[in-house]
Amino acid sequence: MAVWTLWLHCNSIVFGRLGPKRNLLDETLTRAAEVAYLGINGKQTLI
Questions:
Q1: Spatial distance between the Cα atoms of 4 and 34, rounded to a whole number of angstroms
Q2: Which pTM was predicted?
Q3: Segment 1-47, tens digit of pLDDT
Q4: According to the lineage, what is the superkingdom (predicted)?
Q5: Residues 28, 5: contact at Cβ < 8 Å?
Q6: How far apart are CA 45 and CA 30, in angstroms?
Q7: Of all helices (H) and strands (E), which one includes residue 24?
Q8: How far is residue 35's CA from residue 5's CA, in Å, rounded to a whole number?
Q9: What's the DSSP call for residue 42?
Q10: Residue 33 near residue 27 (C-beta atoms within 8 A)
């Protein structure tokens, strides 16, 4: 997850979409938590 977030961040700088982010660690942890939550809770179905 961290490598993917860094890859997206690097591409956004190279292609001029965004400037450097100060909270890259927070964004990485937030995305990892979201993926973990969806992985655990995404398979539940309500009857």
A1: 14
A2: 0.58
A3: 778 888 888 888 888 877 677 788 888 888 888 888 888 887 665 65
A4: Eukaryota
A5: yes
A6: 24
A7: helix 24-41
A8: 12
A9: T
A10: no
- Residue holding tokens 């860094």? 6
CA dihedral over 26, 31, 5, 19, signed as positive or negative: negative
Cα-Cα-Cα-Cα torsion 15, 17, 20, 25, nearest 10 degrees, comes to -100
> Letter for the amino acid at 39?
G
Q: Which amino acid is at 32?
A: A
**Separation of alpha carbons 44 and 36, rounded Å:** 14
Please state the separation of Cα 12 from the chain's center in Å.
Answer: 14
- What's the one-letter identity of residue 18? L
